[in-house]
């Protein structure tokens, strides 16, 4: 699934490690989600959406 | 609570070396019981670490590696038993290593112990290979 995490993270000048720390996951996990290799669960997707103050649909694109 | 990868690898090496040492060296019964308790405590810690882990990608990687270990590791261990029958030299090596065991352990029991260590080692190696395959595919 495509997502805008890399762009949103770059806008805030956060590194993958910063985002990982805020979400309580490992940096490798952020890398896997960012590259679209791993689809996060709904609770984690909501957590990401809240952190970036966006809706889930604005971040994740299941049609891409 | 999450156990770091270096901790997991060093603990694995420590447990394999420790088990081998207790099989070969003359040690007190108390030391052996303490070592077994140590191994059980670590296993419990690992279990809680996996259950309590919040990182779902890591949890998925562990599930994948467990499937890898059970799907490939277990048949590999079983194949070795067949291989032992086909290649009699392997039995000779096992007998040789079993004879090196401590005096209070019968060679047959030492052979059994070696089998357990071998199975444990093979399963963990395949588990680690599974983890590596997972994380490489996630790049």
Cα-atom Rg of chain B, whole angstroms?
17 Å
Query: How large is the count of helical segments of chain B?
Result: 5
Cα distance, first to last residue of chain B? 25 Å
The SSE string of chain B, one letter per element, is: HHHHH
Strand content of chain B: under 5%
Strand order, largest beta sheet of chain A: 1-2
What's the average pLDDT of chain A?
A: 91
On the 0 to 100 scale, the average pLDDT of chain B is 85
Shape of chain A: globular
Helix content of chain B: over 70%
Main interface by residue count = A-B, 14 and 10 residues
Order of helices and strands of chain A: EHHHHHE
What's the quick description here?
The complex is a heterodimer of chains A (64) and B (139). By secondary structure, chain A is mainly alpha-helical.
Structural commentary:
The complex is a heterodimer of chains A (64) and B (139). With 64 residues, chain A is mostly helical. Chain A has helices at 5-11, 16-23, 27-34, 42-52, 56-59; strands spanning 2-3, 60-61. In chain A, 59% of the residues lie in helices and 6% in strands. In chain A, strands 1-2 form a two-stranded antiparallel sheet. In chain A, helix 2 packs across helix 3. Helices cover 85% and strands 0% of the residues of chain B. With 139 residues, chain B is mostly helical. Chain B has helices spanning 5-24, 29-52, 56-86, 88-99, 107-137. Chain B contains five helices and no strands. The interface between A and B is medium-sized, with 14 and 10 residues.
Topology:
The complex is a heterodimer of chains A (64) and B (139).
Chain A: E1 2-3, H1 5-11, H2 16-23, H3 27-34, H4 42-52, H5 56-59, E2 60-61
Antiparallel strand pairs in A: 1-2
Helix pairs in contact in A: 2-3
Chain B: H1 5-24, H2 29-52, H3 56-86, H4 88-99, H5 107-137
Helix pairs in contact in B: 1-2, 1-5, 3-4, 3-5, 4-5
Features:
heterodimer, A: 64 residues, two-stranded antiparallel sheet, 5 helices, B: 139 residues, 85% helix
